[in-house]
Design goal:
alpha/beta; binds pyridoxal-5'-phosphate; single chain; about 400 residues
């Protein structure tokens, strides 16, 4: 349990030890090395072996997607999605500017244009009410990001995509095991990208997955995933050799990566539960600072089930955010901020286009701090982080 306010305010901060709490500590279940050893013994360490199949099957069952392809990163999954959608110069893709770099660069790499739309003030997700005003005859796809594992307004976004015959690609990098309106995130759009980067809920260091929910895209996805070849047909004995068929690339991770990932997938629910427990500790302990007007906590719409991926706070202005971050850093706490709005970046200005005003994007990205959150974070460390924030506001 976190301590009540009165005790925290009387804490003697000058005498306490300065234990550093990093922003992230990649979690290991203990099975990773064992499975990597098994992959080595099976003498199949390139891609698409037994561990890859296990991971892909697990994703298909867990998310309810028709076909999952492991990739070397979430970025790889987004780039594979962009290839599969045949994005080309002249095409436009509607997305938030409050997003990761490669959410946009995957589009720009195909010569298409990311069209940046503002975010909602509650969830910091793409504002679905602004999508229609950003549509042009060049619009080919919508790419919403489920920020912090909180669902975008997928019913409305799916309806707009259907009405205008657009492809819908979910950036579900943060969203494994989250739900929106009862639907697993990553299983809603035609395509979805997951990330298993070391900061994500389950990880293999660097890895990702493309989820193909649209039956009609599966066959070609298989070819693009396997370097643009018909290797799958060859392996199934349908061809006597495999050759270059389409524009693909080397997207699949090695079996060593898949073996590591499988150890994490087996424990995905327990990992998520621990993260959710920490998320709730922060949320309960920071409630009174919110009611005193010092900060804002995340807003989770009633129909969203979250996965405890990110705990963030919004400070009242950019100067307070910077001062809070500086204080946390000085106290040995690895808090961070993100995302720098893409439309304000050098490449974002060059390759993207803005639709309307991006007021919320600019404001909230300047006010946000992410707090440490990982299964190995001890309750006492959460307590210390909260006390430090409390001390910043109430005693400095
Ligand atoms: C929203 C979002 N999309 C895509 C990515 C890319 O994933 P990866 O780092 O696995 O390439 C990230 C990475 O952090 C992300 O946060």
């Amino acid at each position: 349990m976190l301590r009540p306010t009165s005790l925290v305010e009387k804490e003697d901060f000058s005498s306490r030890d300065r234990l550093a709490i990093p922003f992230n500590r990649p979690f290991q279940t203990g099975l990773e090395k064992i499975y990597i050893e098994q992959a080595l013994q099976q003498a199949h360490i390139s891609s698409n072996g037994e561990f890859t199949a296990r991971c892909q099957n697990w994703l298909e069952e867990t998310v309810g997607t028709k076909k999952a392809f492991l990739t070397h990163s979430g970025t790889g999954a987004l780039e594979l999605a962009a290839l599969l959608c045949d994005l080309a110069p002249g095409d436009e893709v509607i997305m938030p500017s409050f997003a990761f770099v490669t959410t946009a660069s995957s589009i720009a790499l195909r010569g298409a244009t990311p069209v940046f739309v503002d975010i909602r003030s509650d969830t910091l997700n793409l504002d679905e009410s602004l999508i229609e005003s950003a549509l042009t005859k060049r619009t080919k796809a919508i790419l919403p990001v489920h920020y912090a594992g909180v669902s975008c307004a997928m019913r409305t976004i799916s309806r707009i995509a259907d009405q205008h015959s657009l492809l819908l690609i979910e950036d579900a990098a943060h969203a494994l095991l989250s739900k929106g309106a009862g639907n697993a995130l990553g299983g809603i759009g035609h395509l979805a990208a997951l990330s298993f980067h070391e900061t994500k809920n389950i990880t293999a260091g660097e890895a990702g997955a493309l989820l193909v929910n649209s039956e009609g895209l599966i066959e070609r996805a298989q070819v693009l995933w396997e370097k643009g070849t018909d290797r799958q047909a060859f392996m199934l004995g349908h061809k006597d050799k495999y050759t270059w068929q389409d524009l693909g690339s080397s997207f699949a991770p090695s079996e060593l990566t898949a073996a590591f990932l499988w150890a994490q997938m087996e424990h995905a629910q327990a990992i998520t539960d621990r993260r959710l427990c920490i998320w709730r500790m922060y949320n309960d302990a920071l409630a009174d600072l919110e009611s005193m007007g010092f900060l804002r906590r995340p807003v989770i719409p009633g129909d969203c089930e979250i996965n405890g991926h990110i705990y963030y706070i919004l400070l009242n202005d950019a100067a307070t955010r910077d001062a809070t971050l500086q204080y946390l850093t000085k106290e040995g706490i690895g808090a961070v901020f993100h995302f720098v709005p893409l439309h304000q970046s050098k490449a974002g200005r060059k390759y993207g286009r803005v639709s309307g005003q991006l007021t919320n994007t600019e404001e909230y990205s300047a006010r946000l701090i992410r707090l440490p959150l990982y299964p190995d974070l001890k309750d006492s460390e959460v307590e210390r982080i909260v006390m430090t924030i409390r001390h910043f506001f109430l005693a400095t």
